[in-house]
Amino acid sequence: MEINFHTFLFYLLACVTGVCALGVVVTQNIVRSAAWLLFTLAGVSGIFFLLNADFVGATQLLIYVGGTLVLVVFGVMLTAQGPFISMKTGAAEWVISTAAGLLLFAVLAVTTGMAFATPKAEPAPDEPATARASVEIGQALLAVPPAGSSGKKASAPTTYLLPFEIVSVHLLVVLIGAAYLARAKRRRGAGS
Amino acid sequence: VTDFLSENLGPGPAAAVIAVIVGSVLVGFVALSAVFFIWLERKVSGRIQDRLGPTRVGGKFGWLQTIADGIKLLVKEDVIPGDADHMLFRLGPYIAFCGSFLAFLALPFAHNVVALNMNIAIFYMLAVMSTEVFGIILGAYGSGSKWSLFGGMREAAQMVSYEVPMAICVLVPVIVAGSMNLNEIGNYQSGFIWKWYVFHDPFIFCAFWTYFTCATASCKRAPFDLAEAESELVAGFHTEYSGLRWSFFFMAEYGSMFAVSGIATLLFLGGWHLGFLPWDPADWLREQMGTAGFILGSVVSVAVFIAKGWLLVFVMMWVRWTLPRLRIDQVMMTCLKYLLPISCFVLIGVSAWQLLGNQSTIVDYFKYACALACLGLLGWTIYKIIVTPSTLPPSGAASIWNTTRDSPFRLAKKS
């Protein structure tokens, strides 16, 4: 296998990302864990930049760095009863999360393996396969019927608009819940 | 240069060599401009507070004061408090500096004089600069000090809210240009001063001032320096830092001051164009003299761009030493109740202007009137500064930097 500068950088970034991801899981201090998470996400965005997907990389940075930031702030505000609190994880939690992680990994590995096993259709030179796929996904998200099925009646055009909206409403529920948890609690009889 | 290197070394090592060269030039620029800005900050604050500022190290203007400070910081003991979280404490300054420095990769200094000519340069810069906060908060939390924690939490609250109007204001010129490539946005504004995007329409004119306010806040400069707040929080987030780690925070701050000023220059103030020439000097000189002319023209453009950036940084300093610090609730109120609605209104307004007003000639007349009015105001101010008779010794433009004769300190000492 040919190792050039690009491949070397890719493996380097992948290793850094993997190690940092392990750090997130293993660390017990919540803010340190968030710092590892920051490096993991930055590594992922680095891989995006390496693949010339500038926009995805920058979006990754903008959204997840902000998100991790809020995570740190909430982590400190909601969990800190003393300085530098550390979390103990129970054995049952370890077992469950390991099982979930392994299952997810198995699914991903099998899917990737299948994608490699099936022979790739050569993409037309003027139309990269990836770009076409992303356009199709975007149109499906907006419930635009696929370009091929415009004339004839598609039996059931797959649209992701409804699931997408349900997920958004779900996020709204989470937001309200967070606001409820984080609101200033009024204790009865506490005032003198 | 790229072709030459890749012929002799092969593409991989050539890319590495170029990366090292470009990286060191940029690091050098960030560090040197930080040195210059720190000196300038002291002189400006001295001038505004009616004192002298540095006068001794390196001649009568104290040119070398920052170098002396740097050497002092280098040899200072590097203290890490016993109760600090060592990993986070060490990590903080580096993340802050990296966040500030990485933004320079996509900042074009002149036409095509840019490390990475990205399609989405402006978006990338905003994304990368938002990581700077993270370093500050990690450092503040890791210090294990209450002052630092207060500073860090304020910084988090302030940054999360100010990023929103800032990003919306950045969108306004992007809508007009139809591109997020800073190189292209700069090119669109070539020519006379009314081609600058500030004067494009009334909305973008508002957007510039809103952007500049948000940018000042995002660099945590006074009146938004709640994270530091030396009169209430000792030194805020960097209370526990000393030596080189402390200076990293400062390099990051001055670096991002220039970065946001550079964005303002590119988006609103015509980028590397002087505004008094109908063409780009680099293009014109290339036609006249070939490659040498192009290099010469690029140098001129870079100089113009850096001068504009420095001017905006100077305005930030001016604001810092003139206005009192806001309270945290006032800071949040300024953002959420004023800047955010203003920026949303401006965004809608500029979209409508692009849709409706593009064809009429009123647009052009507005540009000319606005540009001329601004130039006139500037000229009148300079005229007043020069003409105003000064009864107090060191005032008026001529004696702004005069530190030797007629200063109140010298007079007081003599008498």
* Count of distinct strands of chain A: 0
Mean pLDDT of chain B: 77
User: Which two chains share the most extensive interface?
Assistant: A-B, 25 and 35 residues
* Mean pLDDT over all positions of chain A: 73
Show unreliable segments of chain B.
Answer: 403-415
Strand content of chain B: under 5%
SSE string of chain B: HHHHHHHHHHHHHHHH
Our measurement of the CA-to-CA distance between the termini of chain A, rounded to an integer number of angstroms, reads 75 Å
Distance between the termini of chain B: 63 Å
Helix content of chain A: 55-70%
State the helical fraction of chain B: 55-70%
Write a structural description.
The complex is a heterodimer of chains A (192) and B (415). With 192 residues, chain A is mostly helical. Chain A contains six helices and no strands. In chain A, helix 2 runs antiparallel to helix 3. In chain B, helix 2 packs across helix 11 (243-267), helix 3 (65-75) crosses helix 11 and helix 4 (86-102) packs antiparallel against helix 6. The A-B interface holds A 4-5, 29, 31-32, 35, 38, 42, 54-55, 57-59, 61-62, 65-66, 68-70, 72-73, 76, 83-84 and B 11-13, 15-16, 83, 85, 87-88, 91, 95, 118-120, 123-124, 126-128, 130-131, 133-134, 137-138, 141-142, 144, 149, 153, 156-157, 159-160, 163.
Brief summary:
With 192 residues, chain A is mainly alpha-helical. Helices cover 68% and strands 0% of the residues of chain A.
What attributes does this structure have?
heterodimer, A: 192 residues, mainly alpha, 6 helices, 68% helix, globular, B: 415 residues, disordered C terminus
Architecture blueprint of SSEs:
The complex is a heterodimer of chains A (192) and B (415).
Chain A: H1 5-26, H2 30-50, H3 54-79, H4 91-117, H5 129-141, H6 161-182
Chain B: H1 2-9, H2 11-48, H3 65-75, H4 86-102, H5 121-129, H6 131-142, H7 146-177, H8 182-188, H9 202-218, H10 230-233, H11 243-267, H12 281-289, H13 291-322, H14 328-356, H15 362-387, H16 408-414
